[in-house]
Each structure stands twice: as C-alpha cells, then as structure tokens.
C-alpha cells in the first residue's frame, strides 16, 4: 500500500474539483484525508506474527475504517493485509495457540443458537460481534455477539484464560437483564440517563449508561478443540460483580492466566474519585488491593512474566501550587510491599513491558522533544534508566518473547509513522516493511532553542518550507500545543504543520513552561500561572525564530487548540503582534469552564478562584484587536461549546463598525467533538484556516469553502 499518487495538476475552471487528480498529501487535502494512517501493534504469543492496524478512508469518504495487516517480525517479507471488510475491524488479540480474536461490524450469519448467545435478540446496528480467525487457516467465524458491543479482549500469554470486558447498564444484575434493557430503551427511543455520581460525560460521550463488567473464561483455541469457539457472557464467570461502576479498567493479565490487575475507582468527597490497583484471582474471583494511597492514583499496570512483580504509574494529586508527579510504582506480590522506582529520575514514565527474566523493565517517557524507550535494570540497587532509542516518539511498544527486540510504532513531526524493531541491548532500530509508505514532508524539521527572560531554555521544532531562504523568507505561524501537560513530540494527523508549510509558512512548535519532558521544575514554572511563563516562553520562542534569515519579519499568525486555544485567546488579549489568531476548541472563561468541562475536578486544584481571576482570557476581551477564527464542535464535552459561543459573542458584541466588516469568523461543527475527526470536516477545517490566514496577512480575500 502506498499513499495516493502524487500528480502535479492545475485546476481548470470547468473541471469539477473532485475530478482533479490527487496531488501531494501535504498540499492537497483530498489526498491528505485519503492517506492511510498506522494504528497499533499486536504480537502473537510465540512472537511469530506481528499485526498493525491501518485506518483508511471509507468508500463514502466520510469516515475511516481500520483493518489488520500482517508483518514479518524478521523484516524479510512485505506486509500483507489480513482482514478485509467494508465495515472494518478493531479490537484484536491472539490466543496462545495463534487464533486471532477480533471485533468487526462485518455482516454476521443470522442469529441462531448455533452461532451465538441471546438468540432472542434481533440483529441490530448496535451489535458488537467478536470473530475468530483460526491459526490453521480458513474463514473467520463469529464467536460472540453482544448488543452494545465490547470494551476489550485480553488473553493470557501462556494459558487458556481470556478476559472479556463489556459495558453493562447500571441497575441490571446480569447480562440477560442488561441486554433486555438495552433492547427496551432502543425500541422506546429512551436516551435519558440518571446520574448520582461524577463525572457524567467523557470527551464526546455520556457516562451513566454503562459500567465496565469483567468476565473470565477458558478458550482452548480452535486447533486444540477442533471445533469453533463460543463465548456467552451469560455462561462464563463474571468477576467483581459487586464492583458496579467502581471497576475502572482492565490493565493486565498474568502470563499464566491466574490473575489480572484492574483499576478500581473509589468515590471521594467533593466529586473526586481515586483509582487504586486491585488484583483479581481469575478462578476464585478473590480480590486483593495492591496499590492504594490518599492523594494518588495508580494505572497502566504491567505484570512481570514470572508473576512476582507489578509495575504501574503513581500519579499524585495536584494542589494549587504543585503540579502532579508521575512515578513508577513497583509492587512485590510476595510481600505486598510497593515502592517508587527510579525516584530521582525527573521524567514522567509509563511502563510497557518486562524482559522475559523479569529483571529489566522497559518504559517510555517524554524527553526533550522525543518520547523514547528506556530500559531500567531492576536487579541492581540504583534502578538507573538507560535511554535506548534516539529521536522520535515510540508507541504501542511490545516485547518479543525472546526478549531480544521490542517492536513499536515510531513517529515524529518528520515521520508520520514507521514500524520498527528495537534491539534491547544496543537500541539499534530496524525498519520493518510497513503497509504504508509516506512521501517526504515538503521541508525540514529543525530543533531550535532560546532562553526565556529568567534564563530557562525553551526548545521548539521549526517546520521550514524547502524554499525558505534570506531571499524568500517564509511567514511564521506559531502553533501552541494542548494539554497543557504534553509536548510536540509525536506526529498528529489533526495538527499537521506540513499542510501549512505547503502553503508557504514556517511553523513553530514550541514546548513552553508546563510541557512534559523537561523535568518537574519546568512544569511547576507554569503551574497555576498560565498567562505568565507559558505565554512569555511562547513569545520568547517566537522572537528567536523571527530573527532567522529564512523567516519573514512580517507579523506572524498564531494557532492553538484546546489548552492551545486557551493560550491563543490569551495571546489575542495580551498582544497585537499577530496578524490573525485561530482558536480551536478553546477555553475562554475559566470560571465557567472549570465547572462545565467533562472532568472539572481534574482542573479545580489549579483553576482556583485566584488563578481564574488572574488568567481567564475573557477578562481581556476589551483588548482584543486581532482578527480571530473561532472553531468549535458542539459535541466537545472536554471544552464545552459554551466556551466557543462565549468567545464568539464577546468578539461580536465589541464590534462597533459595519457588521459586514466583522474581522472575525466562527467555524462551527454541530456534530463534531473536540478534534473534528471526520475527513470531510477536516478538509473544511484546513481550507477555512488557510483562507483566514491568507486574508489576515493581506494575501487575498477570505473565501468560504465551497461547501459552506
Ligand atoms: C482531564 C483533562 O482535562 N485532561 C487534559 C489533558 C485535557 O484534556 N486538556 C485539554 C483541555 C487539552 O488541552 N487537550 C489537548 C491534549 C488536545 O489537543 O485535545
């Protein structure tokens, strides 16, 4: 598979724009949305089969469908597509014998007792069907159907134990009742939910209609029992049935299938919850609390192959003045004792795998514009992390059973994604043949740095168009990342600087105060002071690149989404140095935001009254003189639409001149969420941003996208 062919064409007036052959994906938005995107990796228990998911544009070009591709872990054979259906496939996990379980919306045979549970339930568009692709060959066949779908499938590596998780309706005692209630609600068109706890929404969907339920069973595999596998949640063991909505997530299963580690939420006063780690015995169902502490939460657990150790992250609760800390927490199952690992390591790590002898732990952590893999030797006293990989952000990291190599998807802002094998001793990378090859971006990615007024180093990436030079300097676009506890270190299809580079801009991607990968002090510097150091760091980074010969001294433009949108709004109210500002899914009135965002209690320690009084962008509404493009999706529950509506109303109500000459625009998506994910809307998003930036720079009039 390659990206859509690059053909240099000029659009004639008569031609339907959709008929014009595709150009480069970094310049032609139709080619951009049609470019396949790498997803996550799955490895078989014996290490012989590595899969990667690939997201491709669907036939209507209004969504993406994912399929699984088979990779040769040795790197010899090319990638080949393993699953193919119009509806796509998602969840995937190997049984130890090699059978692959996956979910797919592909048409399943009619419901009969023969093939699945709950035969009284008519097939529906809300069905989730799990399929098995037998290792010995042959067609995939359905093994379970469930109205409402599945959350996860987690097989043990060296036994027949398999965990299934699915969302159950609160108040229903078992799977039968759950399925009946779902059917009733559907037929009566009931969508109402009753809440008695917090939170009630998450990113773009409602909570309250579901709680995670956990089931365990033994699946021998089709090769072993010479028959088809069947899973019926009514007939298998439900674990922690009394946990109700306290069961948070299923994090890991022991290789021998004897126990699993799950997150358990305990409701706390003032709407808080605290997640602890609980071990559940898959046979007896007994539970043991493995990690629990006031003022801290635990997650991302990994179990050592010998089953003696659990490592997770421990994140402390922030206060008004102290940001959270993230550390590794090592639990010795024999003694039940837990301790911090690599306490002095000033990074926020996340565990990914243990070596086969359980003596080395592999983790990833943001570091200085990368998110590399580190190895931590657990046998010595020091637990000193050793950086294994160089540039790039490594995700979906899996260890080969022999322990000699890790597999990962590596991305950076110079690379949309490669599949790599990492030597666990030398850290050497080998590229594996990937289902997707991407064309080179239309420029260079530079690592640049400057000093803030207080002497602190601020580093950034600068995406520079190929032709930029002292003779042809490029106009500058400042991009501000979200979070704010994050870093511009991994490729993003949503925030892709190369699309703007192809329009001639140089794009600056700074990591200001609050960014991850530079240590705790760097985060603390901006904590509760959003309009102070994070803002002045961004300005310092902008000043420094404006001095470069290849950068035009014209007024730059600025853009940011989410927290980056907060900062875009703050910039608008505190400087007139930008020609135009794009504010996507932005925080405008912090006083309102902290109570209406989906998870307000996360923000409350930092967004206290004092911080809100000092740093809410809406307080500087009178000072905004820069044209703004406001963009918001109505289904954004992280930064609710009220923030975008408030910003828009305040901008418009301050415009005293000719209404026809309002300098601002509002691009509103009634059915998009925080990210604007559908491909057709991504096109509208970029087209509108391009046109707005062009107009504020005086390069032409603002032109509506032809579909607006
Ligand atoms: C619970 C919570 O709010 N977590 C934050 C990481 C978060 O979602 N922040 C948003 C306001 C934000 O800035 N998100 C960024 C990562 C984005 O680009 O969506």
UniProtKB/TrEMBL annotation:
<dbReference type="InterPro" id="IPR002471">
    <property type="entry name" value="Pept_S9_AS"/>
</dbReference>
<dbReference type="InterPro" id="IPR029058">
    <property type="entry name" value="AB_hydrolase_fold"/>
</dbReference>
<keyword id="KW-0378">Hydrolase</keyword>
<dbReference type="GO" id="GO:0004252">
    <property type="term" value="F:serine-type endopeptidase activity"/>
</dbReference>
<dbReference type="InterPro" id="IPR011042">
    <property type="entry name" value="6-blade_b-propeller_TolB-like"/>
</dbReference>
<keyword id="KW-0732">Signal</keyword>
<dbReference type="GO" id="GO:0006508">
    <property type="term" value="P:proteolysis"/>
</dbReference>
<dbReference type="InterPro" id="IPR001375">
    <property type="entry name" value="Peptidase_S9_cat"/>
</dbReference>
<protein>
    <recommendedName>
        <fullName>Acyl-peptide hydrolase</fullName>
    </recommendedName>
</protein>
<keyword id="KW-0007">Acetylation</keyword>
<feature type="region of interest" description="Disordered">
    <location>
        <begin position="1"/>
        <end position="25"/>
    </location>
</feature>
<dbReference type="Pfam" id="PF00326">
    <property type="entry name" value="Peptidase_S9"/>
</dbReference>
<comment type="function">
    <text>This enzyme catalyzes the hydrolysis of the N-terminal peptide bond of an N-acetylated peptide to generate an N-acetylated amino acid and a peptide with a free N-terminus. It preferentially cleaves off Ac-Ala, Ac-Met and Ac-Ser. Also, involved in the degradation of oxidized and glycated proteins.</text>
</comment>
<feature type="domain" description="Peptidase S9 prolyl oligopeptidase catalytic">
    <location>
        <begin position="491"/>
        <end position="696"/>
    </location>
</feature>
